[in-house]
């Protein structure tokens, strides 16, 4: 009952938003703000032309490379920093420096040094997401309950055993959360880099922006939204499968 | 408990920190900081060594970058560009705070509002703000208005989401205590809810300011290239990587300064709150 009520209310929220948008769009016209009814028509066109999905697939493939690299580097690094004061001291200055540096500022630098090809997008996506993955893993590793570790030790577990059986499972939820936050930043970085060099999906957005009609741009944004929500949901599901204690320990984004 | 112990607790020291323990802790801390310094020096040395083996266009040495940064005529240009950039940062981020903070409190305090708008906000948040750029061009052109709009758009939802989470989690018991001591609605808001929200406000500032700085530089590069973005674009065209890196260094410093100003603000107004 409660669940049904919240779904209904969410629908009311969306309906209100779409209604206001429709009214605003009708008043301003498609050149300034295409109303949802017009965007729906444009969206079918975008699907039929096939450019959108093809560019999307290509861009996501490159993003996945950068994002996976960020997970492979970021997760162990964050755990190491959280569990070892020495690692923390060595990497902390770099992490806190990079995390505040805007990725956008690095793009001209990388265009100059590695060009505008495949590596540019991979590098930008990596640099945009890795620090969030590191910091979330770090917080998780810091927060492992000393009591659980002490219990394992008093049952005779060795250092390695404690790490594999107690520390790591306690950190899983944070790794998943880190991946979710990192993914949001990875998608943002992908679009940013592509709009910069006008290539892939971001390039498509840029080119559609030159049209007189705002409908296609809004359609492209909606696809991005769906993709982002889908991957976020997928990672959440993965978290629930891999670590059923994920929900309880879930940290707020 | 003595006044001194209370003072200690307020200042964040434990109630019974024995002095020998403090000395050891300070020693360990100093040791760790020493490691951080070594790490920075080692990387800078490696960079210096590596840059002597490749062309200066690909990788200028740290000495060159610092030299360019401190070069008086270049520094003057950097500073005047930074001043201009900060104006749009202040306008955009100010707009975000003025709108997102009250809106977040209103939505967060009401279960009905949360159920109605949280899914919508999550959906909109999932769209990379930068993808709105073509749209912003149509609405605001290529200059100051568009840049302010992008700064606003890039920071608005991050601040809003933190404030909603904060307003939702104000402890029921605190409000009940206020009510049983006869606090009226307005008083409860002013004396209980708002102070309880301060830690979240600081968190929103921390997240939002980083996003806003990101938006600032993104806007200066993606719309008409001006200010710091303009300097970057010109350096790129002249293949002057050292100049480019000096701008990156300035942006990095700006981020660090913003974070430490917020940390100072936090220590001043939130001495009663222990950050987890």
From TrEMBL, chain A:
Which GO cellular component terms, listed alphabetically, does the Swiss-Prot or TrEMBL entry include? plasma membrane
Q: Which residues cross the membrane?
A: 64-82, 94-112, 118-141, 162-181, 187-205, 217-235
Record GO biological process? transmembrane transport
Specify the domain of life of the species encoding this protein.
Answer: Bacteria
| UniProt entry keywords in alphabetical sequence | Cell membrane, Membrane, Transmembrane, Transmembrane helix, Transport
Topology in the lipid bilayer is annotated as: Multi-pass membrane protein
Primary localization = membrane
Q: The ABC transmembrane type-1 domain covers which part of the protein? A: 56-235
**Homology family:** Belongs to the binding-protein-dependent transport system permease family.
The protein in question is named ABC transporter permease subunit
Q: Which organism is it from?
A: Ancylobacter mangrovi
What lineage does UniProt assign to this protein's organism?
Answer: Bacteria, Pseudomonadati, Pseudomonadota, Alphaproteobacteria, Hyphomicrobiales
